[in-house]
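Collaborator request, handled under Task 6.
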Amino acid sequence: MKIISSQTLLLTSASFAYLGLLKGTANAFSVQSFPFQHKSLTPSSGSSSSGSTKRQAETKNPSNLFAFTPFLQTTVKQAQQLLTTTILATTLLLASPAITHASSSDYAAMTDEQKAVAEAWRIVDNNFIDRTFNNQDWFKVRQDVVKKKYKNMNEAQVEIETIVASLGDKYTRYLPPAKYRSIVDAATGTLAGVGVEISTNKDAGTIIVADTEPTSPANIEVDGVKFNDGKSTPDDVAARLRGPEGSKVGIVMERDGKVLDFILTRRPITITSVRSYISEKSGVGKVGVVRIKSFSGTTAVSVQEALKDLKKKGAESFVLDVRGNPGGLLPGGTDTAAIFLEANKPLVFVVDKKGVQDNQLTFQDGSVLDEPLAIVVNGNTASAAEVMTAALKENQRATIVGEKTFGKGIIQTIRQLGYDNGGVAVTVARYETPLHNNINKLGIAVDVQADCNNEDAAVCVPNSVLQKK
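Structure tokens returned to the collaborator:
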């Protein structure tokens, strides 16, 4: 990932943190061009679609087709049409009163704090999917907040959080500087930290270690370990534990009633989102299991490589383990699903604030079409992970095992704010499954109900699902 002008990052997912990074609150990334945006995140060339999917659009307003052009597989004629609509869309956006700045004299008269609040208001105004803005006079909101006098930038940040919260969408929210930086770190994929994933124990209200990176310096036992800091959030802990490569950090943990001290050295951590192994299952034989922790632009390639390796080791059936997967890049989910599907199969439908429907289909036959396939999910399987799950379920390619999924059927964009004020996450689109089901707040029902807590996901899958018919 890199910082670049005139681009933005679309995403969907639940959020969790690493000690050294935060897995962004999001899940489905796509690139969308907004020339007035001064700075934001965009995938680098290495994170583009693998070419396994294609997209079509059905809309009464074709001017927004440009929203998904970075991932299109198109003919020359289609490319020319898309270029025309991109120019048209850009013109319409620039001409829209909704994005018009105050006059130069008015803007110049604002304090830095007022400018920061006005900038956050503008980002929401340009992008929020609910054009009623939760049934409030959004322009009056701006008039009110820019008139206020703020003693310092902290007061301005509180105001930003307040106006964004007034939209009534828990996924549209203000990201303080520490949280925004954590998301940026996670998006780049490599950073200096201690390499453990952290989350919150909702029952106890404590911070716990949930997982470790195998190449990290903190390859420690994670069962029930919690941080001895009752006031800290995962974001706070991640911000404190990140630091320069080679520097040391002290961690105090509690395990089994004992307080333990660790001195760890920060080292570069590469986030490993795909792991695989062979599971020997009685009555079935060798089962290839692929654990996907989150989706990025390279996930499909990693899964493809893992499947090839598992086949060489004798696997004749496969299990995809996406328990606890909060999402990530949308193309990561769709391209992974495409590995198991024939050409021209529907993957997902994305509808933006103007009613543009982006129909994403498989572009070519996948490489694993005949082997039995199961997907193990739970209540924390969300967003892009649900996109992949629904695509394989509704195309009758996979059996879904476990618990009903989380139910996140909307997409956010993250925009950086100036003056080092963090950023704003804004809901910009929703998606539907191949059968046009809206799973938001509903989740995906499983085919086989199972309370699966075993580390080996294949244990949770009935033999009949993994046996060739």
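The cover message to the collaborator said: "The radius of gyration is 23 Å. The first helix runs from residue 76 to 95. Please let us know whether this matches your experimental observations."
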